[in-house]
């Protein structure tokens, strides 16, 4: 009489598990890059919203922008760009939060939206030039997305230190 084995051998099971593990690892890496790219796209969109608010404010103030001669956090509390522009809803970086449960970037740095301009530095509309920027996450070297008052936008490798456009 002929005997039939209807089950899988241990070797076959281990091969299948190894293949599943490899697929899971590869897809996990791809998902991480997708999430980083999505957050970078959100950052660019958020900075464009600030740019629109700045242009609207300048149109109401004879072409002058809010003046902050030292870099300020765009969406923070009083004394920031969001407060200067009297925005009711301020775009905030997708990874930013108010408590200690946030996750820093791979190099233990945080991302924020930052603004600097020329003028008197009082927060009043006396500036003629500005730069908005945020660090990007899905790049191999430190890179910032910069938007300038002259309408240019793009990537730079160092954070701005004044209102001069680096593009």
UniProtKB/TrEMBL annotation:
Residues in the signal sequence: none
Membrane topology summary: Single-pass membrane protein
GO cellular component labels: membrane
Lineage: Bacteria, Candidatus Woeseibacteriota
Localisation: Membrane
Membrane-crossing residue ranges in chain numbering: 6-29
Protein species of origin: Candidatus Woesebacteria bacterium RIFCSPHIGHO2_01_FULL_40_22
Record's keyword annotation contains Protein biosynthesis: no
Protein name: Type II secretion system protein GspG C-terminal domain-containing protein
Alphabetical UniProt keywords: Membrane, Methylation, Transmembrane, Transmembrane helix
